[in-house]
Structures are given as structure tokens and as C-alpha cells.
Backbone:
């Protein structure tokens, strides 16, 4: 029985994690949950699993939770989140917090000797080097939950890519895979949310539309698997059945296939190194009929080239790219900028940044703050 804390339990990944845990009651015990503001769903989840601890981002919501969950310890704010991950009745944390708010809880969980199931790619993009240094120093277990990185982890059976010639991340291509530049310039927020394969939250859906999600995954793969930029490839695969591949020096390619359902990588992280039947849908290749592949168009989707620039620059540049993307997402959602302006804002923010190599955690946090402030106001062409 593994005791798990789910950070971001009311989001898309968190809800799926709860579904996985409910399907495996003989293997998984959910002892703690953390959420942002969705108290109604958090209360429902805490009652379902009879959780001993919950955490909420907004302290003003603490009385509501205490009234609804008698006997359950209610924590709040960043300090409460850190207290939750260090609790003695937690063996593994699943970090599914959107954005960079998961960084400090993940690092504290590693220091406390917890296993990490990592779904928040921003943690690795923002501070991949110090996080992985800490994981190695503490001899911690970190299992990636992003479907692409889970696939690579499964093909390699480790986080060590030294035996690989290339890591190949697959991309569905998003809702604008065949769209012209003119169509993309006029795209609305609702159109950009319409992902053709995956059902996800707003932020990751917009990232998938710009291919920034894949750009962030390239940086995550670089840090997770200690793999140089030139050995990380992206291949558009509209069916999203092959979740990623590893090419070896002899030319052999191993691929991980499965139904596009986030419960698969979540379940694998929860039960690793075992594989169990969680009642999920089986892949029927005959029904699918064919699998298609194409090279990404980096002229229409320059996010991938920005990721390569960030990896090569190192230091605080990946953090700045991620922070600018988060700020640009908010501006697009609010109607302040157009869809194609998202990448323009990120590019301008990266251009003005004075990169810091061998950055400390304080350097990273300050670079994140400054990049958000710049991206929140910069105009395209300014």
C-alpha cells in the first residue's frame, strides 16, 4: 500500500489521479489533497478517500473546509503545502499544480525523502538543474507523469539517456496543425482550446495550440534525462497513440503506445516498478488502422526553436521562457493580445533577459518575477 498526496487534486491531472487511486484501493491510499480554490470538489474528494489532511491556497477558505471535514487537518497557503508534503503519512507526492507554484513543495518533498510523481513540467523547466541535483543527492525516486516523458522513461527503464542516440517526443500538432498563419492570427481563445485529442485544462490546451507545450517538454526532457538539445527531436503524430520513442545507436527505435488517457502514466507512476490492471481501455491498433507522422513546421510554430535556444543558453533562460509564456497566456485569455502574439511576447522577453549561468534558487525566482513583469506589459514589435 502506497500513501499518496495529490497536489492540484481538483485540476485535470488531479481528477484523473483520484480516478486511478479509486480503481486501485488495494495498492493506493490517498492520505492528503491540495487544491487552489475549488472547495466543493476538494471536499468531495477528501470525503471519498477519508483524507487525514487537506491544503487550500486561499486562507479565507479554511473555515469552510474545517466545517465540512471534521477530524481532517486543514492547512493553507504555501506554508501549508510544504507542511503537507513533509507529513509522515505520505510516501509519494503527485505534483499536478499548474505553473511554477509546485517548485518549492517538490524540493521540500525530495529533502523529506518522499518519492515524486511529477506532472508539473514547469518545475523542471524553471529549475531543472537544482531539482535534479537534489534528487541525485538524496537518492530520491522521481517518476515523470507527462505522457511523453513517462513513455521515454518506460523505454529507457530509467532517467539515464546515455544509452540513447535520440529522444523523440511526439506531438499531436494541436488544433492549428493545418491552419494558415492568417487563420492563427485571428484565432479566438475558444478555438485555441479545442484540442483534437486530449481533454486538458485551459493553460496546457493553449500551450498545445502554440506547441509551447512541446517546447516546455523538450526542456523538461533535457533536464530529466540529462540529454543534450541536439539529441532531442519532435515528431508530429496526430493520433497520439505513440507517446514518445527512443532511438538507440544501432538504429533500433523503441516506442511506448497506448490509448491517449492521462490515467496510464499516472497509474504507472503510482505502481512503478510494477504494472497492474487498473481497468483502463486497451489499445486496438486494427481499429485505428494507421499511424501518421510528419516533421513540425517551425516557421508557423517557432516555440520549438525558442526551446532549443533556451536549452543552449542554460542558466535562467528556460525559467524566463516559461514565465513569459505564463504571462502571455493570461494576456491572451483576457483578450489583450492575439494568439500569435503569445510567441512574440515570449521571444521579446527572452531577448531582453540578462542570463545568469550557474544560477542559485534566488536567482531563478528573481528571473521568474522579472520575466513575468516584462511579459505582462511588452508590446509586439516594441
Residues:
Amino acid at each position: 500500500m502506497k500513501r499518496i498526496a495529490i497536489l492540484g487534486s481538483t485540476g485535470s491531472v488531479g481528477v484523473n489521479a483520484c480516478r486511478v487511486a479509486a480503481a486501485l484501493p488495494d495498492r493506493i491510499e490517498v492520505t492528503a489533497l491540495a487544491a487552489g480554490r475549488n472547495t466543493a470538489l476538494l471536499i468531495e474528494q477528501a470525503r471519498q478517500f477519508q483524507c487525514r489532511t487537506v491544503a487550500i491556497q486561499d486562507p479565507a477558505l479554511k473555515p469552510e473546509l474545517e466545517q465540512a471535514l471534521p477530524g481532517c487537518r486543514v492547512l493553507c497557503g504555501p506554508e501549508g503545502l510544504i507542511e503537507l508534503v513533509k507529513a509522515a503519512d505520505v510516501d509519494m507526492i503527485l505534483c499536478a499544480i499548474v505553473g511554477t507554484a509546485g517548485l518549492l513543495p517538490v524540493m521540500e518533498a525530495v529533502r523529506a525523502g518522499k518519492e515524486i510523481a511529477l506532472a508539473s513540467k514547469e518545475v523542471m523547466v524553471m529549475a531543472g538543474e537544482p531539482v535534479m541535483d537534489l534528487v541525485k543527492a538524496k537518492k530520491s525516486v522521481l517518476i515523470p507523469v507527462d505522457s511523453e516523458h513517462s513513455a521515454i522513461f518506460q523505454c529507457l527503464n530509467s532517467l539515464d539517456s546515455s544509452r540513447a542516440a535520440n529522444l523523440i517526443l511526439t506531438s499531436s500538432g494541436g488544433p492549428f496543425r493545418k491552419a494558415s498563419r492568417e487563420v492563427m492570427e485571428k484565432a479566438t481563445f475558444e478555438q485555441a482550446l479545442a484540442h483534437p485529442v486530449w481533454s486538458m485544462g485551459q493553460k496546457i490546451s493553449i500551450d498545445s495550440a502554440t506547441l509551447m507545450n512541446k517546447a516546455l517538454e523538450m526542456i523538461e526532457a533535457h533536464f530529466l534525462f540529462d540529454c543534450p538539445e541536439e539529441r532531442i527531436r519532435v515528431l508530429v503524430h496526430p493520433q497520439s497513440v505513440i507517446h514518445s520513442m527512443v532511438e538507440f545507436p544501432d538504429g533500433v527505435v523503441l516506442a511506448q503506445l497506448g490509448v491517449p488517457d492521462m490515467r496510464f502514466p499516472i497509474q504507472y507512476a503510482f505502481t512503478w516498478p510494477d504494472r497492474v490492471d487498473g481497468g483502463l481501455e486497451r489499445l486496438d491498433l486494427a481499429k485505428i488502422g494507421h499511424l501518421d507522422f510528419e516533421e513540425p513546421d517551425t516557421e508557423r510554430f517557432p516555440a520549438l526553436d525558442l526551446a532549443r535556444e533556451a536549452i543552449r543558453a542554460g542558466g535562467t533562460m528556460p525559467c524566463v521562457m516559461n514565465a513569459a509564456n505564463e504571462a502571455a497566456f493570461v494576456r491572451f485569455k483576457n483578450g489583450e493580445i492575439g494568439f500569435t502574439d503569445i510567441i512574440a511576447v515570449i521571444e521579446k522577453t527572452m531577448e531582453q533577459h540578462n542570463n545568469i549561468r550557474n544560477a542559485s534558487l534566488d536567482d531563478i525566482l528573481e528571473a521568474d518575477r522579472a520575466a513575468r513583469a516584462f511579459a505582462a506589459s511588452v508590446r509586439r514589435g516594441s
Notes: The longest helix spans residues 121-137. The first strand starts at residue 2 and ends at 7.
